[in-house]
Amino acid sequence: MSKRQPRDIVCPRCGVPSAKVIGRSESQPVIYLRCEDCGHVFSSFRADPHYSGYWGADVAPGEHHYWSKARKKMHRDFFQRFVVRRSGRLLDMGSGLGFFVKAAASHPGWDAYGCEISPAAVKFAREQLGLKNVVCSPLQDVNLPPASFDIITIWDVLDHILHPDPLLSRCHALLKQDGILFIRTPNISVQLLRVRLLKAVGGIRSGTKYMQGSDHAHHYSARSIQELLQRNGFSDVEFVHLHPIETGEGRRGLLVNGAKNLSFQVLRALAVCSGGRLNFDNLFVVARKGTAAASP
Ligand SMILES: [Zn+2]
Q1: CA 157 to centroid of ligand 1, rounded, Å
Q2: pTM of the model
Q3: Cα 10 to ligand 1 centroid, rounded to whole Å
Q4: Number of separate helices (H) and strands (E) present in the chain
C-alpha cells in the first residue's frame, strides 16, 4: 500500500496538508489518513453537505423496526441515566426514522423533538410513528429559540459531517445553561486495534469492513472529540458506557449478543478502572454547556 499522501487532501481538523495513508476501504475508492501534525484520523470520503439520501426515496411502512429493536437496551440505558425522574425538552439531531424521539417522548415530563434532512425518514416518522415534532431541515436553518433545550442528542451522525463546528456551535446556542449534549460515534482507537488484531490473526480479508462505515469523514478518538467540543464552548466532557447494539435472531443472535455483552462489560470495567485512559468502547460523549464562549 502506498503511504504517499494524495496532494489535494488536507486535514479537516487542523488544515495541515500532511497526512499518511493508514488504510483503504474494501468496498469504495476511499482511503483513511492520519494527520502528521495533529494525529487526527479522517477519510477521503466527501459527501454532499446536504446529502439526504441515506434512507432512500421512500421508507415502506413496517420496515426498519429492527433498527429500533437493536438499540432498545442502549436507549434504555440512556433514558435511565439522563431522562428518568427528570423533565424538560430533548432535541435529537439527525433523528432518522424517529424511533428515539418517540421513545424519549414517552417519558413523563418530556417534550421530544427531531431534526432530520431526509424527507423519506421524516415522512416515516410523521406518518408511521405519529410524531408531530420532527422537522425536515438542517439544524442551522431551523427557527428555534436559543437556550430552549435540556438535552441534545447526536446518534451516529457527527462522523459523517465534514465541517462539524457550525453544527456544534448551533447545538451550544440551543441548549439551556447546564444543558447537555450527547454524542455517539465510533472510536478510532477500537477500529485501529481491531484492524491490527485481525491482520495479525488472519491477514486482510476481502469484504471485511475494518473501519465500519466508509462514508465517515472523521474517525474520532476520545482526545479529538474532546478538543472539538471544547473548541465549541462545551465543558465537563466525559465518556459514559451504554449497552451495545444487539444484532441477529434466534440461537445465533443469542450467542452473538452474549459475546457482545461480555465484551462490553470487560471494556467498561477497563475504562472505569483506568480512570478513562483505556477506553476501547464506542464513544458515548457527554458535554455540558459551560459558561465559556466558543473559540473563533
Ligand atoms: Zn491535523
Answers
A1: 21
A2: 0.88
A3: 8
A4: 8, 11
Question: What pLDDT digit, counting tens, does each position of 236-266 carry?
Answer: 999 999 998 888 778 888 888 888 888 888 8
Q: How far, in Å, from the CA of 230 to the mean position of ligand 1?
A: 16
Helix (H, G, I), strand (E, B) or coil at 93: strand
What is the per-residue pLDDT for 98?
A: 95
Q: Report d(CA 193, CA 202) in Å as an integer.
A: 14
CA 256 – CA 13 distance, rounded (Å): 36
pLDDT at residue number 265: 86
**Per-residue pLDDT at 193:** 77
**What is the rounded CA–CA span in Å between residue 284 and residue 266?**
16
Domains and CATH numbers, the chain: 1-44 (no CATH), 56-244+282-289 (3.40.50.150)
The per-residue pLDDT for range 193-252, each reduced to its tens digit, is 777 777 777 666 655 566 666 678 889 999 999 999 999 999 999 999 999 888 877 888
Alpha-carbon torsion (14, 16, 21, 27), positive or negative = positive
* Cα–ligand 1 centroid distance for 34 (angstroms): 8
CA–centroid distance, residue 35 to ligand 1 (Å): 5
* Cα–Cα distance for residue pair 49/130, rounded to 1 Å: 28
Q: Are 231 and 62 in contact (CB under 8 A)?
A: no
Calpha distance 79→153 (Å, rounded)? 12
3 CA distance to ligand 1 middle (Å): 17
Find residue 20's DSSP bridge partners. Answer: 34
The answer to whether 254 and 294 have CB atoms below 8 angstroms apart is no
* Contact in structure between 9 and 195 (CB atoms under 8 Å): no
Q: What single DSSP character describes residue 210?
A: T
